[in-house]
């Protein structure tokens, strides 16, 4: 993939979507890659939709229109589905499979699409996709929030970015609080380990 890459990231409040955005942007800067990043929409309360962008390779603005993203990172599958409008035809998707139902679904007022429907929509738009149970694996490692680095680990190990997995490891050690480094390194490594088995197509 070109060094000029546009990434759209989405999840729900409490998952660490903006933390992942900031970390990836700092990793890019540390690797000498020009980067702009921005928040499209962020809800402070847990459970609200959070959307952000990272543009690598010399873009002037973090603005991202529909159909322009090369990569979509979805930290929750329903938000991945909603975020597909930003993905260009033939782009790439990395998504968690762990559902965090919105309040309207939890209250029984609405029914959310199932994972099969999300995967089919991704197949219709993307050239390849990886689906990983990020939150579940994060809990296994000791922190649900470290699931964001499972997804980042898979992304950085995929060869799609102008820097690799080792740059992410270095970034976690450098930019994350010391008490969170070990669990997030383990999370990133878990993402790298299951990259091949998590590929949808």
Topology, please?
Elements: E1 5-12, H1 17-30, E2 35-42, E3 49-56, E4 69-74, H2 77-83, E5 87-96, H3 103-106, H4 115-125, E6 126-132, H5 134-141, H6 147-157, H7 165-175, H8 178-193
Parallel strand pairs: 1-4, 4-5, 5-6
Antiparallel strand pairs: 1-3, 2-3
Helix pairs in contact: 1-7, 2-4, 5-6, 5-8, 6-7, 6-8, 7-8
Primary descriptors:
201 residues, alpha/beta, Pyruvate-ferredoxin Oxidoreductase, domain 3, 6-stranded mixed β-sheet, 8 helices, globular, Indolepyruvate ferredoxin oxidoreductase, beta subunit, oxidoreductase, IorB_Oxidoreductase, pyruvate
Explain the overall architecture:
- The chain is α/β, with parallel strands linked by helices.
- The protein has one domain (5-99, 112-197): Pyruvate-ferredoxin oxidoreductase, PFOR, domain III (Pyruvate-ferredoxin Oxidoreductase, domain 3, 3-Layer(aba) Sandwich).
- Helix content is 41%, strand content 23%.
- It has helices spanning 17-30, 77-83, 103-106, 115-125, 134-141, 147-157, 165-175, 178-193, and strands spanning 5-12, 35-42, 49-56, 69-74, 87-96, 126-132.
- It has a six-stranded mixed beta sheet with strand order 2-3-1-4-5-6, sandwiched between helices.
- Strand 2 and strand 3 (49-56) form a beta hairpin.
- Helix 5 packs across helix 8.
- The longest helix is centred in the last third of the chain and has 16 residues, at 178-193.
- The two termini are 18 Å apart.
Helix content: 40-55%
Query: What would CATH call the homologous superfamily?
Result: Pyruvate-ferredoxin oxidoreductase, PFOR, domain III
Give start-end ranges of low-pLDDT stretches: none
- CA radius of gyration is 15 Å
- Give the C-level CATH assignment: Alpha Beta
Question: Overall pLDDT, averaged?
Answer: 91
What name does CATH use for the topology?
Pyruvate-ferredoxin Oxidoreductase, domain 3
Total of DSSP H or I helical runs spanning 4+ residues: 8
């Amino acid at each position: 993939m070109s060094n000029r890459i546009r990434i759209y990231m989405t999840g729900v409040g409490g998952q660490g979507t903006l933390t992942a955005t900031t970390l990836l942007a700092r990793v890019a800067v540390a690797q000498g890659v020009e980067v702009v990043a921005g928040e499209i929409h962020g809800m402070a309360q847990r459970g609200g939709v959070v959307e952000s962008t990272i543009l690598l390779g010399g873009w002037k603005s973090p603005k991202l229109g529909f159909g322009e993203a090369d990569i979509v990172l979805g930290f929750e599958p329903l938000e991945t589905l909603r975020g597909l409008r930003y993905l260009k035809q033939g782009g790439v998707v990395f998504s968690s499979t762990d559902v965090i139902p919105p309040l309207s679904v939890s209250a029984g007022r609405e029914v959310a699409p199932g994972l099969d429907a999300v995967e089919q929509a991704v197949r219709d738009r993307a050239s390849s996709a990886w689906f990983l149970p990020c939150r579940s694996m994060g809990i296994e490692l000791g922190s649900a929030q470290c699931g964001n680095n499972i997804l980042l680990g898979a992304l950085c190990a995929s060869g799609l970015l102008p820097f690799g997995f080792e740059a992410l490891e270095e970034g976690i050690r450098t930019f994350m609080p010391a008490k969170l480094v070990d669990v997030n390194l383990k999370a990133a490594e878990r993402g790298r380990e299951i990259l091949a088995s998590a590929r949808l197509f």
